[in-house]
Amino acid sequence: MRPLIAALLLGFALPATAMAQSVADLRNDAKTPGDVLTYGMGYNQQRFSPLKQINRKTVKHLVPAWSYSMASNYGEESQALVKDGVIYITSHDKTVAVDALTGKEIWKTTIEYPPETTKTVCCGIVNRGAALYEGRLYRTTLDTHVIALDMKTGKEVWNVKSSDTADGAAMTGAPIVANGVLVNGIAGAEFGVRGFLEGHDLETGKQLWRLYTVPGEGEKGSETWPNGGAKASGGSTWTTGSYDPDLDLVFWGIGNPAPWNPLDRKGDDLYTNSIIAFRPKTGEMVWHYQMSPNDPFDHDGVNALVQADLKIGGKVQKVVMQAGRNGFFYVLDRATGKLLAANNYVKVTWANGIDLKTGRPNWTIDMKSVIESASKISTWPSISGGTNWFPMSYSPLTGLAYVNTLDMGMEYQPLPIEQVQNLKTGQPHYGVKITNIYPESGNRGILKAIDPLSGKAKWQVPFKSANWAGTMATAGGLVFTGALTGEFMAFDSETGKMLWQFQTPSGIIGQPITWERNGKQYVTVTSGTGGVYVLKIPDANLAHVPPGGSLWTFKLMED
User: Fold this and answer.
1) Which residue in 64, 258, 315, 545 has its CB near the most CB atoms, within 10 A?
2) How many CB atoms neighbour CB 23 within 10 A?
3) Residue 241 banded pLDDT, cuts 50, 70, 90
């Protein structure tokens, strides 16, 4: 029986206008800053706001308006949503609606799941957000349920089970609503899960389709796996894609193959480490592009997929782009998947570049030795990547992508093939020895303003610890992000100069947003340390950063 989900109501209702978000509202979300209705602050996931009341000159007057306790010591990675003066925020065990101007709780719906659920979660007890549509909030849960809640009351409308946690599956990402379908993904490649995307009916939760991201025997792409796909697994889809309503295409990043050890799965291993485009109504794949064939390094392809119009060769082209975990910045044609640019934006030693004609990486000798035998090598970036799940932002005003990058390498060696040939679903699918290599500078993270077409940084700001938070750009000339040591910061988007910071009680691994109410601009972010870096990478700088989740909103100080 499904564990109890209880709605705790405070006895007053939301206004009827809060129920009115529509297809047009979602489509225009990036241009209507009074509300934030979508993950990524718009279908294009640019995380850019046209608001400029808070700007280079005024940001020094930014002060807390309120904070709200999430009552949890797990990581808070979620992006808040805003509709008609109400903020909606998710955590691993709850969904909350609060008054946007006061921070007072309106309703809270808790989620209980079996304690054994956490045994097969590789990278943190977290949730990253929700979707809103026609009076309902949609989210996923760690124990692989997809649920719909009434936005007015927090009461559950429907609840469907998607997969089995005993097999290593989990759900941490935000779903999206695209062309009348709720689309969501799955985590679990580290436990041998066969990855998928799926579409659900918004009214009932009925599964409409499922698109597996690794093929079964005899299916298209199975020829790129040993034994015709008989043992194909991995390809999880644990972060959220973007949607182009004009093309009616959803773009989604696909994760690593399983196990990490490549010796028993020689081949390209489609569609792992790929960007795919598909129809939201049917799940039909329209095109794919694979960044890291036969990936041995856990260089997941799931990072944020940002849409933009870029001038290339004197012509404006509609592109989708990604700061890849493997260290290359990719720019592709949205309609066709044609590769337009691919350049490293951090130190990369596993490949000597990307062939633009074939789209394939030019492997180094060290990389080839890992694929062919159990060689030990030093390589960059580490399994954490050139960046990780935390989303970048893009400003159409500067033409720059703002990315929290990582500066870490690793000593890497696959274990003998015999140790990975008979792994079962639900067991750890690693099969490698890894030791992190840290830079001599002592700076593990660098916030960079990157030219998408060249991969070069216009400016960069180093940090002792890696920043594990998303970024947000605004028309006020600002870039907001947070640090694992708790600082919430604003930088000049043209120069990288830090203009403002505020110390929150815990580390920031969330995603900032900005919004407007009654003619005033506000900025909102979660604080609450956790996630894979904190769990698995020793960092003395974080020794005195306490856990404890909270939601913060800031405003300009009034005279």
Assistant:
1) 258
2) 14
3) very high
SS3 178: strand
Q: Report d(CA 178, CA 197) in Å as an integer.
A: 13
Using DSSP bridges, classify how beta strands 472-474 and 48-49 pair: parallel, antiparallel or unpaired: parallel
> Residue 331 belongs to what H/E stretch?
strand 328-333
Q: Round to whole Å and give the CA distance between 355 and 357.
A: 6
Nearest in space to 346 (alpha carbons), one of 378, 377, 380: 380
Q: Which range among 61-70, 71-80, 130-139, 419-428 shows the weakest confidence by mean pLDDT?
A: 419-428
State the Cα–Cα distance between residues 399 and 402, nearest whole angstrom. Answer: 10
Residue 68: pLDDT above 50?
yes
Q: Is-contact 446 432, C-beta < 8 A?
A: no
**Structure tokens belonging to residue 250:** 């959803």
Rg of the chain taking only CA atoms, in angstroms: 22
CA dist 322 and 203 (Å) reads 33
**Residue located via tokens 């499922």:** 210
User: Closest Cα to residue 240, out of 322, 134, 152?
Assistant: 322
Find out whether 234 and 261 touch, Cβ atoms under 8 Å. no
- As to burial, measured by CB atoms within 10 angstroms (0-12 exposed, 13-18 middle, 19+ buried), residue 247 is middle
What tokens appear for 50 in the block?
A: 């046209």
298 is catalytic: yes
Under the banding of pLDDT at 50, 70 and 90, the label for residue 22 is confident
Please choose, from the candidates 46, 29, 19, 141, the residue with its C-alpha nearest in 3D space to the C-alpha of residue 403: 46
Using CA of residue 484, residue 488, residue 494, residue 496, what is the dihedral sign? negative
Cα–Cα distance for residue pair 471/330, rounded to 1 Å: 18
pLDDT confidence of residue 141: 97
Structural domain for 420, as ranges: 5-556
The pair of structure tokens assigned to 249 is 């295409």
Gap between the Cα atoms of 142 and 137, Å rounded: 17
Q: Give the chain's mean pLDDT.
A: 95
Query: In the prediction, which pLDDT does 1 show?
Result: 37
CA angle 439, 430, 254 (to 5 degrees): 85
Of 264, 269, 295, 298, which one is the catalytic site residue? 298
Number of domains within the chain: 1
247 close to 265: Cβ distance less than 8 angstroms: no
d(CA 318, CA 311): 9
Position 5 pLDDT exceeds 50: no
In the three-class reduction of DSSP (H, G, I as helix; E, B as strand; rest coil), residue 84 is classed as coil
For 346, the token pair is 């951090």
Q: What is the DSSP string of 471-525?
A: -EEETTSEEEEE-TTSEEEEEETTT--EEEEEE-SS---SB-EEEEETTEEEEEE
Q: What is the CATH number of the domain that holds 186?
A: 2.140.10.10
